[in-house]
Amino acid sequence: MRILPPGPPLPALLQAGLIWLDPTRFVHTCHRRYGDLFTIRIPRIGTLVYLTNPDDIRSVTRGDPAIFHAGEAAAPLCQVTGTQSLIILDDDKHRRSRGMMLPAFSGDSARRQVAEMVAITADEVARWPVGERFPLFPRMQRLTLEVILRTVIGVHDESRLAALRAALPPMLEIGSPLELIPPPQVLLRFGIWRRRAQRRAAALALLTDEITRCRADPQLAQRTDALAMLVRSVDGAGTPMADDELVDQLVTLLLAGHDTTATALSWAFERLTRHPALLHRTAQAAADSDDAWLDAVCRESLRVRPVVFEFGRKLTAPVQLGGYQIPAGIILTPSINLVHHSSRHYSDPDEFRPQRFLDQRPDPTVWLPFGGGVRRCLGATFAQVEMRTVLREVLRRVELSPTTVPDEPVRPRHVTMVPRQGAMVTVRRHIAAKSRTSLYENQRTQV
Ligand code: HEM
Questions:
Q1: Which one, 82, 128, 191, 425, has least CB within 10 Å?
Q2: Ligand 1 centroid to 81 CA: how many Å?
Q3: Residue 35 three-state SS
């Protein structure tokens, strides 16, 4: 049996460069040329076998987690998250931490945060200028950071919020992929590594302070934020998380939940403003609190513009897949983007058409924006509740202008794929509170 699927016969460095420059074109070209499975080599990361067939992907996400290691595949992230982060753990350690963290991200927990999300969105939108084009992405970053600070870390004191707002984004910023490569010890005192260490130390001190305050809070038992739930949680042996582990999990939640959700929201507005009839229909749905339509818009946006293009599982043992005997050490890489854009699974896959998800749940084998299996995104429900809430509250508060400007291309940013111009939008006007529910009465458009 053959060992590895075919792939481009280019030096690994060149393959890395091509992926970085235009990830969409490179993997689409490989898919067309080599078929459902293909192999790409990236220096310092390893050999990646891309998977695009839902049956192959399912056998990986539902396979034995002891063989398909997601933590090992994500290991470079530990430069940012720390070594006890859920994202980089595997096996028993992963099961333990995930079990302790899941309740804080259940549907009920997410829904308890909606009022806070509404207030944060209202504050943010009130500052948007009228009649000038501006990039939405930085605004969405500010908004989703605020959501995490208040609902995940549970901070409400204005001076502590200000300190966290200043310290956390620089710690999460991965300026170049170089920063994810573990440097030799001696280099830690120089250049980007020294700056990273300084930023990290300042941010961790603030997070540790929040944990100390949380433990001492007389209201701890009543608090509904994720940090309070994590502080209260214990593992199967009755042991709670130690402070250093809690810090790593908070950094993880910030890294995994801040820019991702900001990007997803930016794409939703980028898509809507290029489809005037859908924009009107969504604004009407916002006015009517028609969650079914709002959810369909979010799901379709995550399909047509997935925020994360792929996820990884490093093999600890050889596996047979698609006619190959793939050896241990290879990183299997299900391609979210290629599955979402395949005409085998979606008619007119490049079209933005929320109707496909109206009143029906997406098929989890071909709708993968949050990955799959026991490593599926911990914050998937939280993110979808947040997306729906922000979409609704923005469109209740401002009228956005549709645009005929060409679609924004996709640009890689860390592990996410963002709109290259930052999702430029123009606010036509702010909507007064009293006219919010009736504004779109006369604009109902058949879509
Ligand atoms: C639209 C927004 C988001 C997208 C597209 C997204 C996407 C993903 C993806 C693709 C993975 C990898 C899954 C896999 O390997 O199977 C992941 C993992 C993860 N995400 Fe999200 N995510 C989003 C928002 C969030 C939020 C809001 C949080 C928490 C506040 C979060 C926390 C995590 C964590 C902790 C993991 C690691 C889970 C584990 O290893 O067990 N994510 N996410």
A1: 191
A2: 14
A3: coil
Helix, strand, coil in percent for the chain, rounding step 5: 55, 10, 35
Determine contact, residues 318/434, Cβ cutoff 8 Å.
Answer: no
Q: Is the dihedral of CA 269, 418, 225, 159 positive or negative?
A: negative
Say whether pTM exceeds 0.90.
Answer: yes
CB 309 near ligand 1, within 6 Å: no
HSE-CB for 62 with a 13 A CA cutoff: 8
Q: How far is the CA of 371 from the centre of ligand 1 (A)?
A: 8
pLDDT digits (tens, 9 = 90+) for 174-193: 765 556 666 677 777 777 77
Length of the chain: 447
pLDDT in tens, 245-271: 999 999 999 999 999 999 999 999 999
Per-residue pLDDT of 317-334, as tens digits, reads: 999 999 999 999 999 999
The count of C-alpha atoms lying within 13 angstroms of the C-alpha of 393, restricted to the half-sphere facing its C-beta, is 22
Ligand 1 centroid from CA 87, angstroms: 9
Whether 86 is in the pocket of ligand 1, judged by its Cβ within 6 Å, is yes
Please say whether the beta carbons of 387 and 265 come within 8 A.
Answer: yes
Q: Residue 273 carries which side chain, given as an amino acid letter?
A: T
